[in-house]
Design brief:
The chain is α+β, with helices and mostly antiparallel strands. It is built from 17 helices and 22 strands. It has a domain at 322-457 and 500-529: 2-Layer Sandwich (Nucleotidyltransferase, domain 5), CATH 3.30.420.
Amino acid sequence: MTTHPVATAIDEGRTTLGIELGSTTIKAVLIGPDRRPIAHGSQSWENEFVDRTWTYSLDAVRTGLRSCVARLREDVRARHGATLSQVGALGVSAMMHGYLAFDEEGELLTPFRTWRNTATGEAAEVLSRHLGQNIPHRWSVAHYFQAILNQEPHVSHVHRLTTLAGYVHHELTGEWILGIGDASGMFPVDAATLDYDEGMLRRFDRLAAEHGVTTPLRTLLPEVRVAGATAGHLTPAGVRFLDPDGHLEPGAPTCPPEGDAGTGMVATNAVAPRTGNVSAGTSIFAMVVLEGPLSGPHPEIDLVTTPAGDPVGMVHCNNGASELDAWADVFGQFAHALGHEVEESTVFSTLFRASLEADADAGGLTAFNNLAGEPITGLPEGRPLVLRRPGSELTLANFMRAQLFGAFATLRLGMDVLMKEGVRIDRLFAHGGLFATPGVAQGYLAAALGTPVLVGEVASRGGPWGMALLADFTLRGQGRSLTDHLQAEVFSGSDLQRAEPDAETAAGFEEFLQRYRDALPVQRAAVDHT
């Protein structure tokens, strides 16, 4: 019989499980009664580009989740000598937005269209005009309306629309429910009612009827719940979905499923007005909790919410660190060709630190990290590029600084819009693998945005930890607001590293950004001609 406090908590089910399906990795985190991680599991996966569509198969979702949970169970056994058979609560999150359409029998009607797909320009433009709010290319309603405009045969059979998190939650609980943060990336929500905007729903239905679709959109969308609410319980079928060997017991309560943007806000304690966070992974995005409405719609700004329903201005860039990953892999291959086996983390840290020796403006180099289309800069598809004039200083240091500056350039273009609106930020937190090497990307981001950037050990725990905290809030929130709960129970006394904008680096970034803007026609030409 186990006697260690952590093992005892595991045996007694006084733990909380958070699962997140990110763009490149499925991760699970188990937290104990003190809300700190006690075990982890992960499984890598990759999107596929099939018929000009970025997608993941539902088989990949199932097998990836099962492998991730199996590794979590192994970690529990190895670390604590305990068997994971029950949890106090659980929750699932995933990459936001996208399009999953099911018929009445629960069959997927068309391959999952992820947030990375931008072939919805016509729908986004029409909906933004008719609804009076910016509707981004990747939002679920844009995908659905584009399918209507394209007269895709599956539209007449759609019975349910949801996100990836909503799909997995349904498989675990049998409930079609979505957290308000993720729901706000399907269709606009009303901050007063904490539900889909009724007036916009009516306008959408009238618009869809003009194209022969008369099914009310609300009947297709998941039910909206805010943080702290119970969103069903883990069913026996849900246990089989996660763990076909049936080690887990059914019955655990679940919190509303959320998007990775929401879990990033929770994991960085950025859910109060005038706080924000930047998440850098396959995509890069900033979330700023607003004090009030903006003056009007902006194509660069998505209006979404925190998991508690507070309004958020989101700057979402489809392209983040993937191009950096590709170049790090090339340099790793070069080291291998020289007979040196180097850990991936060492390759990254070496390259990132080399950038600190660069010229302030990256030596005249310009780098575009666009593997996918980028709506903020009007690019329908991605074409990564590195540009330089004959007199530019092509060094390793300048090359890497250009790549890192390029990862933040489009984000800065979107953040400029918020700043012109008078939006104020007291605290900006950064998280994601891009910030794993201390003192590098954090400083560049501070220089790019002209604001102090904080990074902490807690942020490195990432989205699945944020999801576990939301499940814990459902279980032990005790009637407090999410902001008060996180501050009192999770982040009190957290150690944070603060980077102030460096004047020389900021001036160098401005020079880089001007070249970046000037060279955007080259990017568009590359899409048109290659």
